[in-house]
Amino acid sequence: GVSPSACKCQDRSEIVIGGVLHGVTTDPFWDIVFAQARQAADDLGITLRLDRLEPQPSEEIWHAKMASKMINLCNEGVDGLFVTIPSENVVRAIEECQNLNVPVMSVNTGAELSQKLGLIHHISQLEYTAGFGAGKRLIESGMSEGFCLNPEAGNTALVERCKGFEDALAENSIPYLGMISVPLDNEALFTANVEQAIDREGDWDGLSVLTVGASVVSALLSLKERRPALLIGTFDTPDALFQGLEEGTILFGIDQNPFVQGYMPVWLLTLLSHTKQHLQNNFIETGPSYVDESPSEALQVCVLNDFEVCPRPVQENKNQLTRIRPLGLALAAVSLALSTFFGVWVWLNMNRSCIKKSQPLFLGMICIGTFLMASTIIPLGIDDSIVSPDACSRACMAAPWIFSIGFTTAFTALFCKIWRINILITSSQSFRRVNVTAMDVMKPFAILLTLNVIFLLVWTIVDPMEWERNITSSSADSRSSYGICVLGRSGVSTAMISCLLVVGFCVIVLANYQAYKARRISVEFSESKYVAMCMVVMLQVLLIGIPLSVLVSEDPVPRYFVMTAIIFILTMSLLLLIFVPKMHFVNDEKKGRRKTNSTNVSGLRIVKNPHHQSGLSKKQVNDLENVFKEAGMHIGDTTELETLLTKAGINIQKTTLSKFSAAWMSSQVNRQGSQLNTGSEGAGSQCNEPEEEEEEE
Questions:
Q1: Of all helices (H) and strands (E), which one includes residue 39?
Q2: Cα 421 from Cα 85, distance rounded (Å)
Q3: CA-CA distance, 583 to 654, in Å (whole number)?
Q4: What is the enclosing helix (H) or strand (E) of 376?
Q5: DSSP class of residue 276?
Q6: Exposure of 172 in the CB half-sphere (CA atoms within 13 A)
Q7: CA-CA distance, 294 to 243, in Å (whole number)?
Q8: Residue 520 confidence (pLDDT)
């Protein structure tokens, strides 16, 4: 048997239907026909080739242009063609299309010629029947004489209407004054032609007229103002008909249903092209339908608007951030909350020695920096699902401002603090005491922050980023798009981004360099261990995140997730590595649980020998305290230090004297830090252990 899956689905956009109609742009009747044909094409999703002619100097030229259009469409290979047949001048063109195996059907005009040509369908009203019925209605209204107005004397359909009207009058022995040719769009010439043909004065009592074209109704109503007794009937339903029915100036109109005449041929030809099937009856009647009273006002509005159809909602995939945005905001909220929490915690514990030595100023800077970096997630999550494109463009520029300033603030704080401790360590090697204030190390921060602001201002003012929506490259039907922030049209944007990256890179390099210099210093003075851990986390995140961001550049949802994850991991690692250890030491200090294996003498911590049960004796500790007090804590060089130790009864080998000198230096740093209101050690330095005097027997 035949498998159903062997029949492929039909892409209707590949079906092309052509149309050639004699309705010119100045004839209002054809507005509806053309509008409905295009509506059918839109509903069916097919391609329609239908152009409308301008008025021509003569019917011969008019119909010749129609024939030329028919032949061109058929040679191009349309899947079906619908036409009007106003005269035999277009018959040869239709026959040529039939020879090319193009299905042809006719509408509105040319029922007899359509039947002779053997066309699939002819869609129109019964023209002769309509004219005959119009004559009977006018007779019932009291007409004594009648004539027919024809704006297209060569149109076979209009001639049939006048013929039906004439026969109705003849059947009732009423004089027929003939068919008068009138222009389509010249009211003055129209009036002159009619007046000349009738050639009588008065109000034309008992005289009736049937116009077989809608285009001359307005001119006919102007004529009635001069001849008020004239009885009027008209074909079609132009705008002026409804007003005439309400005022009683027009007796009736004949509706031939132009909506069906425009819509049905497109639908039937599409069905024929797709399924190779059609209706069995050749003639499809659309009228006549007599209109002798004005329809409701609502229906009139719909008619005037061609029964407009609401556009179908386009199933476009805009790849908006509606579903992923809550996740990004939740991650931002976590980072913002932790930054705020640690900032408040530092403020509440700033009088504790641990926080003093870690300098609350720099700890606060880190909290501010991470808060700003986390805030970047908010503008990154803005798209046209919640704001206008202009607001999206502003969000595009807000993101680099917030992140750049936050990054510089946080990592410059780390650099400045490690730099400060390195200055203290270096100066102590020559047994010099130095005073390094917080403002001394804030200068690099001020410089780097100023550079960031300058670059960002130039970028924002001269060549800002703009948000735009682009078609996804993989979208075959252009229904998949994505919103993205694009750089400005000049090279200023690229130059400013490069400068910002250089500044950020310099901050990282300087922080790592200072951390490397402090690598041999105890963690209670240097945060190099934690800076190194932060750098490792950052490197891993960037190595994975940047390539992923490039790969998903046309998909905003994963791109937003990747960028949000990078910012979240960066801020969380910095906060947790810096502040969690400090909270641990502050907690131990509060509970007094910290034990030490060292003896502190005037700020000098002397670690016990792990290989002996005892360290310094109580007498040695007291003697060393007295010696240091006598020296006033001022030691010029290593020789003086050795002399003081010997005086205290402490013998030390020359090879370990330099190490002991370092211990002395550390004690002075520790002493200096304990005297600062804001502290002097790095942000990541561990707090000093609670010092206990231990006695050895």
A1: helix 29-44
A2: 99
A3: 40
A4: none
A5: S
A6: 20
A7: 8
A8: 61
Beta bridge pairs of residue 233: 210, 252
Summarize pLDDT for 161-180 with one digit per residue, the tens: 999 999 999 999 999 999 99
Q: What is the DSSP string of 207-233?
A: EEEEES-GGGHHHHHHHHHHSTT-EEE
- Find tokens 């998903």 and name the residue: 552
CB-CB contact of 274 with 11 (8 Å):
no
The structure's pTM equals 0.52
Q: CA–CA separation, 681 vs 529, rounded Å?
A: 14
Instruction: Please report, as a single letter, which amino acid is at residue 436.
Output: V
Instruction: Work out whether the CA dihedral 215, 220, 225, 228 comes out positive or negative.
Output: negative
Task: Note whether 429 and 504 are within 8 A (CB).
Answer: no
The kind and range of the H/E element at 406 are: helix 389-428
Neighbours of 322 (CB within 10 A): 12
Instruction: Evaluate if residue 343 carries a pLDDT over 80.
Output: yes
For residue 264 the two structure tokens come to 């049905």
Residue 145 has pLDDT above 70, yes or no: yes
Q: Which of 424, 418, 410, 331 is nearest to 378 (CA)?
A: 331
Q: Looking at this protein, which amino acid is placed at residue 577?
A: L
Phi, psi dihedrals of residue 583, rounded to the nearest 5°: -65, -35
- Percent of the chain at pLDDT > 70 equals 77
The string of pLDDT tens digits covering residues 580-589 is 888 887 777 6
DSSP per-residue codes, 46-59: -EEEE--BPP-SSH
CA 456 to chain centre: 25
Cβ within 8 Å of residue 601, ≥6 positions away: 616, 621, 624, 625, 628
* Confidence (pLDDT) at 299: 84
Exposure string for 84-99, b = 16+ CB within 10 A, e = fewer:
bbbbebbeebbeebee
CB 349 within 8 A of CB 363: no
What pLDDT is attached to residue 265?
97
Structure confidence at residue 614 (pLDDT): 39
Give the H or E element holding residue 234.
strand 231-235
Kindly report, residue by residue over 477-522, the tens digit of the pLDDT: 557 888 999 887 778 888 998 998 888 888 777 777 777 776 665 5
CA 563 to chain centre: 18
* Average pLDDT rounded to a whole number, residues 26-47: 92
Instruction: Give the phi and the psi of residue 467 in degrees, each rounded to 5.
Output: -95, 135
